[in-house]
Amino acid sequence: MKRLNYQVLKESGYDGYILENAPEKVLQFGEGNFLRAFVNYWFDVSNEKAGWNGKCVLVQPIAPGLAKLINEQEGLYTLYLRGRENGEKVDRKRVISSVSRCLNPYEKADFDAMMALAVSDDLEYVVSNTTEAGIVYDPACQLSDTPAASFPGKLTQVLYKRWQAGKGGLVILSCELIDNNGKELLKCVNQYVEQWKLEDGFKKYVNEDCTFCSTLVDRIVPGRVKDPAEAAKMEEANGYHDELIDVGEIFGVWNIEGPEWLEEKLPFKKAGLNCPVVPDVTPYKKRKVRILNGAHTGFVLGAYLAGFDIVRDCMQDDAVRGFMNKMLYEEVIPTLPLDKKDLEDFASAVQDRFNNPFVDHELMSISLNSTSKWRARNMPSFLEYVEKIGKLPPCLTASFAAYIAFFSNDIQELNDKGLVCRRPKGNTYVCSDDRWVLEFYYEHKDDSAAGLTHAVMTNERMWGQDLTQIPGFEAAAAACLDKIRTQGAHAVMKELL
Fold this sequence. Notes:
Layout: H1 6-12, E1 24-29, H2 33-37, H3 39-50, E2 55-59, H4 67-72, E3 77-85, E4 88-96, E5 99-103, H5 108-118, E6 125-128, H6 151-164, E7 171-174, H7 181-195, H8 200-209, E8 211-218, H9 228-238, E9 246-249, E10 253-257, H10 260-265, E11 277-278, H11 282-305, H12 311-315, H13 318-332, H14 340-354, H15 363-366, H16 370-389, H17 394-406, E12 413-415, E13 418-422, E14 428-431, H18 435-443, H19 449-457, H20 460-463, H21 473-487, H22 489-495
Parallel strand pairs: 1-2, 1-6, 2-5, 3-9, 6-7, 7-8, 10-11
Antiparallel strand pairs: 3-4, 8-10, 12-13, 13-14
């Protein structure tokens, strides 16, 4: 079967939207599954729906990468967006044509090509997702490097070349999963400006003419199809061989922190896409952490003890799904600063996302490092609910008890892999967390429900405070833990509805 390119695509009979030639408007650092299912998808739809007429040039952030494959396929790849939308199963296919080429800047010719693009009149945007470790200042980088090893170093080289050529400022959209990603990237660039002793005029250009935006990205991207039989079936249906097939969930939102004029400049609003420009992404990050991530951590430990193994099956159970929704709608949403309808719509989408028929998301994979996760994702909602409402949130209280139960249920041993426990259905499981957490639970393996609850709540290393100081919390959590141990987690969830 022939490999995908424009000619092969035409021969296959594909009748979807395709744009073969357009000006290169985006320089994108990162060529992996996530960016191709997220950023390049948004720009591709913008070409179709908003007449944006632009292409993205991808750059490998590190030496090994996908440049050769992407260029062999002339930038084309097949994207499947799968999941549930408004309760309905969705499986959409689209050939993405918003990518023109991919550069490997560690090769001299491609480094020169990157610097040539830097001075193009067509260039408007820089986009990046170089992983959490990508936005770092490495003082070993030099302006004369071809290229600088760090991503901020490469970006400084690109912007300096552009400034020297007298070209206008760029909009930089940072997608790395760190707080204030755009601000942190600008900070690193300014460090290179100082280290390399670059002109004051360039420093002004970076900080005033360029617009560094922090953004919040939200789409689960599994990437490649793992089942060989399913992949073969896709290729047969497509009529071509595609080395770059990408798979993501149907849900996606890109919150971009920037000035008001940026929303009109970007093509996304005109294309009807879920990419709002907002003055501050912080509330949206809080929404994601408290609702999406908080839902995961809030119900999966109890659900696992109740006998469930994957998230989707939990959404088929009235008690577990009802428990999660009550926690989100009645205890978490009232503590958040955004519009209530916006929050409820996001929570509704979470249920669809968790019920994705194409993703087997294992509860045990979500259980990793649950102590720090409960502290970061659920404890703020718990504390703010107590402060605002003046009483304990029953589902979050039960969630905390389920957390303790998960780490203490019929403890077998502590070994190199983790803390081995046994759940009610009979199989053993391994708790994975910081070693000191696992050692703590092993030391308290013979405690009563009340004794263990007191020990956990007074462990300030875990929570940053003594949780027994919250009126009624210790007694309520201990009673709930005892009920989970005697009646089962499922019964506790059901009783709370």
